[in-house]
Each structure stands twice: as C-alpha cells, then as structure tokens.
Amino acid sequence: QLLSLHADVLVSIQAACIPVLLSNGWELPFSEVIDWKKAAVAGDEKLLLQIPSTVRCIHSNKILAYRQQTQFLWEAYFSSVEKIVQTTLEIIKDRIFRQCSRQRFLWNALPGGLLVLPQYSTHLGDFPFYYLSRGLKPSRKFTAVIWVSSPVLFQSQSVLKLIHAVSGSQYCAQILIMWNLEKPPPTSERWPLTAVPLKVIQGKKKMTHRFYPYAEILTDAVLSLDESSSLSTSEVDFAFVTWRSFPDRIVGFLTRSHFWDSSRNRWGYTSKWTNEFSMVLTAAAFYHRYYHSLFTDYLPARLRSLVDQISNCEDILMNFLVSAVTKLPPIKVSQKKEHKDPLSQQDLQSSTLSTVNLRFTQQQDCMNQFVSWFGYMPLVHSQFRLDPVLFKDQVSVLRKKYRHLEKP
Q: What is the pTM of this model?
C-alpha cells in the first residue's frame, strides 16, 4: 500500500498536479532532503471535511509555484530509474560525509542536488545558480584561457594580438595558455609583456582538457578563446560586464543553431548567419568555472571520449551541458566584425570541401549522440542579443562607453 501511495504521488507530480495528502505521519520519497511543503498540500485526516475549503483558498500564484516545484522535482529526481538510484546514492553519501554534504536548500532549488557537486564546494557563492536569490555577485575579474594547437597560427601575429587585447581589459586577472603542440612552448622571454600574469600549461592534446578544472583558474569567470579568435579589448570588457548579470549562462560572440530534420528524422546542426541561435561557440565566450567541474565529473566518460577521438564537438557538448542545467539559452553580445569559422590552419591549407563536410558531419552525429544520452534536446532557441547603450545610434561617440566597438 505504501508503494502504491508513493506511485500515486509521482504520477501526480509528473502531470504537474499538486498532491493533496491526507495521511498523518506518511513519509514521502526522499523527504530527508526534499521539502515537500513546496510541492504538496498536507491535510489532517481527522479534518477531512475542511480540506475542500482549504484547497479552494490557495491563491493562484501559490498554485503556480506548487506546480513549478512539482515539475522541478520530477525532472531532477524521479524522471528515470537512473535518477532515482543516483539520488539515493547521493543522499547516502551525504549521510556518510557530513562535513561536505549539500545543504537542504540545494536539493530544493534549481538545478537540484545532483548537479551541485560537493567535491567542488559547499558554499552557495561558489556556484553560478544562486547569486540572484542570495543577493551575491560573481568576482570582478576573469581568467582568459587560450587554446593553442596549431604551430602555423601560433607563429603568426594573431595569438600575440589576442594576448594584447585581452590583457588590456581592466577586468582580466590572468592569462593561461593551454599548450597542445608536440614541440615545447617558447621560453618566457618570447612571450609578450603583459600587465597581468601569463602562464603556460602543458596540455594533454585532448579536446576535453580544454574544460578541465585547472587549479590555476581562481576567478569565477572564464574567457575561453581559440588561438584564431580576434577580439578587441572593448568587446572583451562588454562581454564580461554582460556575463556578470547572467553568470549561469554562456555569453559570447559566435553562434550556431540546431533544427529538426524531418527528412532524415534526426537533429541537424547549422552555422547559417541568422537572428536565431541555440549555441555560443567556446572559441570566444565567457562562462562560470564551475562548468569545468561539471564537464569533467558529471558527464559520462564515453561522451568525452567521443569528443577526444574526433577532436571536434567539445563546444557543442558544453552548450548541451549548460542548457540542460539552466533550461535557458546562451546569450549573444555585439561584436565588432563578423568572425570566420575557426578551422585549424591545416584544414585551411588543405582547404578541401571534403574536410569542411567531414567536420560538419561529425558535428551532426555528435549532436544526435548527445541527445541520446541526455534523453531529450536540451538546447533552447533564442533571438536575444545584447548591445551597449547607444550602440550604433546617431549620437556623439563621446556619449558611448564602448565606442571602439563601432570602429571599422
């Protein structure tokens, strides 16, 4: 009978219905961590006749809050056998390791206890999800991480120009160079002098190590860059200021989108330049450093292995992860000029249509494999772009804070 009652509750919350409980002392599933008062109405079974009037007196706003919480609980902990088992194991782990257990608040607020890794932190201010609700703000500085994997591009001036532009930002705390070439990195004398610390980290030549939780990253914000990226200091400043208002999302410049291909009965990937997008490429984007920990410790090894095998799709997987956690799209910000697709120099030299088509096919296949693991398509479309105040308005440039964004 107890199992039947539990099943009835789960069926109710799956349908976004508010359970009304009339069983004194009844223990609901995972009540050790879940606050069921936010998702269900409990009444005294001795006062059965008063229940209808009590339910009718609930305000419509509270009913909406109840229903939203039922959907959150269902998606976070009960929507699959895997999630039920994982929730059970995490609760047991919290019982054993109480010194680093999750607060009850974390289990009852988005994104849920399973997506808040206690090995990363137990302090609310270290996660990107609770700043607004707790009146907090992320740190005022960012760490730039530049991925270097092409000797030809490195020998050009593009990387040096990028370092100068990023280090010129008033918000830059340090620059980390992820060195992923066979030959050793240049000595410190050959790197440009910058106003902020510059450190070279020897990579492991795996694409997924781009999102490894390096101990050297001390700021909340990470600016992920490819060696081929071309940004001005004004673009970096504006993007970072924007990110501080949306610290749980990816904020950047280069966008892509997904669509349902009914002729092939699968998801498609497109790089067409349109107003609508669902992904921001990590070739030039800000995000919270916590997503490095989620990427490494939460996602299954087989997805990361897929990315490493084909050396592609790491940015798609990161967008899947962030959208699945937040249920929100990324944010696009203004850019000075149109950025070309960041292909490697080797691809550009061989510059064959087959090379481009291969990358595109890989991205399509990756996307559908990611959807298979997540169990649904987490990406969310958006047409939302943020520009500085007075951007391209016909007023004096002296009135514009980011006036260099409009220079050719």
A: 0.91
